[in-house]
Amino acid sequence: MELLYQIALTMIPGIGDVNARSLIKHCGSAEAVLREKYHRLLKIPGIGSVTAKSIVSHKVLNRAEEELLFLDKFKIQALMFTDPDYPQRLLNCNDSPIVLYFKGNGSLNRKRVLAIVGTRQVTEYGKEICRAMIQRLAEEDILVVSGLAHGVDTVAHRASADAGISTVGVLGHGLDHIYPSINRGLAERMILNGGVLTEFVSRTMPDRENFPRRNRIIAGMADATLVIESGVSGGSLITADIALSYNRDVLAVPGRVNDERSKGCNDLIKRNKAALTENADDLFYHLGWGEQSKSAKEIQPTLFRDLTEEELKLVHLLSQQGDLSIDQLESMSAFPLSHLATLLLGLEIEGVITKLPGNIYHRIGKG
Predict the structure, then answer these.
(1) Which of 84, 90, 308, 353 could bond to 96 as cystine, CB 3.0-4.6 Å?
(2) Residues near 102 by Cβ (< 8 Å), separated by ≥ 6?
């Protein structure tokens, strides 16, 4: 059972997500990795003697079997990175987890996904802005992602649940408990139309070092990250920086210049790292959502110039596969990245395709 071996692979110290993917790619499966010989593991790029020794001397299968029993007992879904229900946007991030654990009923691959993060010491101003934004988002087919922490996270999740918006909390611990415990009831509401998600196995405690790792999932599974109130340091700014590294949009709500809880947002805007966002209209404008994007998608390409064979290949890929990232198009088309970018720009100018947040390309007129 491949899932057993993928879970076991994540339990071996020192491997990490990037090496885990490389190992599976070279060996063919997680099971093959755990059965591979030491001298053959050393031939895999990035795998040194320490990691190879950890793999061949592992004693993690019993613990992985316990985890499978836990997942079955509590009806938790294990999503391997090859699973179609795995957050597909995360696949464009080279350090995404090879296994995620999800308890809930919502899709992790909604048409639009927005991460909302911010300070734990949220003010009434921050709460008001967050609730107003989410009220407008209820008009869209959207998933709101956050970290279920005190402050902005809690406000975003609760407002989403109240508005009937699907919302997912990404946790920095296992699914055998909820941290902070005061949000246990909120998590149960979220599971009805959304859920809770983690890369950590049961019995993993909410240790400090887990939360920066958690933040990359929040940033990676969203089209954009909205920061509502943040100091000059903290988890929300880490999430914003990760989102930028993934070439995702970052937006920030401005605040008073002398307010410590707005200095992080103001600095993001000042350094052109984030788009200034005062309300939902600004958010829709920056991301191309709402009526503007709907009307654009309804445009039917009619009198285009004759497309080249290479352009037609890209149009065919987008028509058959649906929306694709530039990395996926590069892989499927085998075009060099610089040449691919030129072709895509030409198709955009012609109105054949449109570029969505996160370097995702959409074939206009195909839904």
Answers:
(1) 90
(2) 76, 77, 78, 79, 85, 108, 195, 196, 197
* CA dihedral over 67, 71, 74, 80, signed as positive or negative: positive
- Spell out the residues 6+ positions from residue 259 whose beta carbon is closer than 8 angstroms to its own: 123
Q: Are 115 and 224 in contact (CB under 8 A)?
A: yes
Strands (E), 120-199: 142-146, 166-170, 194-198
Nearest Cα neighbor of 190 from 170, 205, 204 is: 170
Q: Which helix (H) or strand (E) holds 172?
A: none
10-residue mean pLDDT profile of the chain (367 residues): values are 93 90 93 94 91 92 97 97 94 93 94 96 96 90 95 98 97 97 97 97 95 96 96 93 95 94 95 94 87 43 65 87 86 87 86 82 72
Cα–Cα distance between 262 and 95 in angstroms, integer? Answer: 30
Residues 87 and 81 sit within 8 Å (Cβ to Cβ):
no
Q: CA 300 to CA 315: how far, in whole Å?
A: 14
> Does residue 180 have a cis peptide bond before it, meaning omega lies within 30 degrees of 0?
yes
Adjacent-strand bridge partners of 142 = 112
